[in-house]
Specification:
With about 210 residues, the chain is an alpha/beta fold. It has a domain of about 100 residues: Rossmann fold, CATH 3.40.50.300. About 50% of the residues lie in helices and about 15% in strands. A five-stranded parallel sheet has the order 2-3-1-4-8, sandwiched between helices. Strands 6-5-7 form a three-stranded antiparallel sheet. A hairpin with a 5-residue loop joins strand 5 and strand 6. It binds adenosine-5'-diphosphate and zinc ion.
Length: about 210
């Protein structure tokens, strides 16, 4: 099954994508994680993306479309995949169609803007491996330390409050129209994000099984 997770930054789509990925034993492809890894390793693509990602702007379509083309052609995507953070614009969605990729479901995690800003301030990522955590919703076993690798947990630059507002604005302008795009194809499933992550997960799994 090929699934897309849509939603505002900080809505919790990454967390849900990981859970579904484990359950269905198919990989999650997160453009945000791929770009952050490239940035950390100082690759040419990472350097190109740096100013965009740090200021909360979208990385140009041709760059992310290139990333996705390469990643989805790898062996582990043959039996299905979950896209987390792609597509984020209509041209990106059209690029998937042009690649001949059939999307089965688009799961949109909805959270009101007012709640997003508060949630983002609690978000932390592992400096070493990129795993994400939340001070309230997804606590690491030991404060400030990654469960997976023992790395240090830090706040992402683009999770700073001013940048979050910019990212929300871009989400509404550029990404939200994708709901309509996939609704017209009969593929859109809306999940209302709940206070408890486990409640959101139950609704997400229901949408996956429908
Ligand atoms: P979130 O979902 O919390 O916004 P991501 O890790 O998905 O975080 O994305 C972080 C940043 O990476 C975005 O703000 C953008 O700069 C860049 N990015 C990730 N995916 C895309 C994409 N599909 N198109 C353009 N930019 C992207
Ligand atoms: Zn780690």
């Amino acid at each position: 099954m090929n699934i897309i997770f849509l939603g505002a930054p900080g809505a919790g789509k990454g967390t849900q994508a990981e859970i579904v990925s484990e359950k269905l034993a198919i990989p999650t492809v997160s453009t945000g994680n791929i770009i952050r890894a490239a940035l950390k390793n100082g690759t040419p693509m990472g350097l190109k993306a740096k100013e965009y990602i740090e200021s909360g702007k979208l990385v140009p379509d041709e760059v992310v479309i290139g990333i996705i083309k390469d990643r989805l052609s790898e062996d582990d995507c043959k039996n299905g995949f979950i896209l987390d953070g792609f597509p984020r614009t209509i041209p990106q969605a059209e690029a998937l169609d042009e690649m001949g990729i059939i999307i089965d479901k688009v799961i949109d995690i909805e959270v009101a803007d007012e709640k997003i800003a508060a949630r983002m301030s609690g978000r932390r990522v592992c400096k070493a491996c990129g795993n994400s955590y939340h001070l309230e919703y997804k606590k690491p076993q030991n404060d400030g330390v990654c469960d997976a690798c023992g790395g240090e947990l830090i706040q992402r630059k683009d999770d700073a409050p001013e940048t979050v507002l910019e990212r929300l604005k871009i989400y509404h302008e550029e990404t939200e129209p994708l709901k309509d795009y996939y609704e017209k194809q009969g593929k859109l499933f809306i999940v209302e994000g709940q206070e408890e992550v486990s409640d959101t997960t139950a609704l997400t799994l229901k949408a996956v099984e429908e």
